[in-house]
Amino acid sequence: MLNFPASSFRKTLLVRLVVTYLIFILPVILLGMYLYNWSYRNASQDLSKATLSQLSDYLGDLNREIDWMEIQQFDLLEDSDLNKLALTWDMMDSVERRTSTNYLVHRLTTLKSSSAYIKDVDVHIRSINKTVSASNAVHDFDEDSFNYFRSIAYKKENRLINYNNALHLGVSRQSGIKGEEPLFIVQIELDTQKLKDSLRQVKMYPESRSFLLSESSGFSIGSDGESDKMLQSYMEAVKGKNGNTSMFTVEGQRYHIDEVHSDNLALSVATYLPEEAVKRPLKKFKTWAWLFVFTSLSAIIIYSFSTYRFVHKPLLLLVQSFRRMEGGALDIQIEHERKDEFGYLYNRFNHMLRKLQALIDQDFKQKLMMQRSELKQLQSQINPHFLYNSFFILNSLAKTGDLERIEQFTIMLGEYFRFITRNGEDNVKLAEEIKHSRMYTEIQKLRFSRRIRVQFDELPKDMEAIRVPRLIIQPLIENAYEHCLEKMTEEGQLRVTFESTPAEASIIVEDNGGVSDIEIEALNERLAHSNESHEMTGMINIHRRILLIYGEGSGLLLSRSELNGLKVTVRIKLGEVEGHV
What residues does the HAMP domain cover (predicted)? Predict the structure, then answer.
C-alpha cells in the first residue's frame, strides 16, 4: 500500500468518497426508522377507520332489527283477538278458547320467524292465568316474568331490558283503570347465540374479538369464550375514558381497541386486537431495517477498501505516470489487466504516448505542409486532353456561327478555370463545389450530348453549408469521363446523387463503364494504404484530404454501381456542430 502524509490524506478522493457515502447512508437509516413509526401509526389509523365503520354498520343493522321487532310488538298489542281473549275469557266456551289460543300461538310463531334475532315471544295474560309463547304454546302463567316486565314498563329507561342475562323487549297492555294490573304483557327475547354469531363477523383480523355491552343494564356478551374472559379487564381499562379508539394492557399484553356507542339502543359494540397483530405486517420491515443497518456498516468497510483498491490506487498510478511524462519520459507504459474505466484510461494514455512519439518523429508540421502542397499540385493540373477538347468545341461553334452558345460556353469555361486556379481558402461550401462540378458536367454535355446521358440531382438544403476541401467532386466526374464514358461505343450514363443523415453526408458518383470486381478491389486496396502509396493519383489525393480533415470513417468508398459501372461514394462524417469541418 501507498503511504500518505497525515496532513494530505484527509483531502484525498478516498476520504471524500467515504464521507459522501456516510452522508448518504445515515439519513437513509434515519428515514427507515421514521417510516417504520409512520407506517405503524397509519396502519393503526386505517385499521381504526375501517373497524369503526364496520361497528357503526353493525349497530345500524341491529337498530333496524329492533325497530322492526317493536313495530310487530305494538301491532300485536293492538290485536283485537288478543284483547278479546284477555277480556272475555270467562264468557267463552271451550271451542272458542281453543280457537283463540291457537290463533295467538300462530301469530307469535309468525312474529318469531320474522327475525333471526328473536329467540322467543311470550304473552303473559293475567286474566286467564296463562302464558302463551311461540316455543311452548300455552303453559302456566309466568308470574316472575310478568312482575319484572310490569315494573320495568313503569320506569321506561331503556328499550332493551336485561333479564336473566339476555336482552328482551317488553310492552304492557293497560286495563284503562288506574291502579289495576296490565291485561297482558308482550315479551320478546333476543337470541344471545345469534348475537354472538353476528359479533364473530365483526373483525378485521383472525385475532380480533368483539363485545356487546350495555353499561346501564349491566348486560355484556363476547363473540367467543376468549372474549368473555377479557370483558372484565376491558371494562376496567376503558372505564371513564373518552374516544372511540384506545390502548389497554392485560397481563403485559397491549391491545388495540375500537368502540362505537348507540344512544338509541343504549348499547356499545367494541373490538380488540393484540398490538402484535397490528405490527405483524411491519415485522419483516423491522427485521430488514436492522439487517440494513448491519449491512450498511459492513458496506462502509467494504466500500472504503474497494474505493482505495479500484479507484484511489489506480488514480495515483495515473497521476504519477503523468508526472513522469511531464519530466520528459515517453517510454513509460502502464500495465493494467482489468477491462474497466481505468483500463481504458491507461490504454489511451499509452496510445497517447505512442502517438506523441510518432508525431515528434514524423514532424507533424512537415506533414501538413506536404498535404497543402498536394492540394496545390492538384489545383495546378489542367488536363491537356480536356483543354484540347474545349478548344475543339469552341472552334466548332465558331464555324457554325452560334454566337449565343459560344458566349455561354466561354462563360462556363472561364468560371471553371477561375475555380480551379484561385489561391483563396482551401475549404469551400459544398454548394460551391457542386456548382463547379455541375458546370464541368455541362461543358462535357456539349461534347457528348448524344452519347452520354447525365443525371445530376439537386443538392439538399441541409448539405449546402457543409465546408469541404476544394476539388473533391469534379475530379471524380472527370475520372468517369476519361477512363470509362469516352471509350464506350454504346450510350453512357453518369449519375450524381446525394444522401444525408444527422451523422454523415454522402455524395455518390456512378457510371456504367463496366469496371470489373477485381479492379474495384484493387482500387479499394490502394485507398486503404494511401499513406504508404508513392504514386499520388487524384483519387488518392481526395481520399487523403477528406480522411485527414474528417477522421476515421470518412473518405472514398468504391463499389459496383447499379448501372454496372464504378460507384464512388464520398463520405463525410459530421461533427458535433453539423455542417462544419
Answer: 309-361
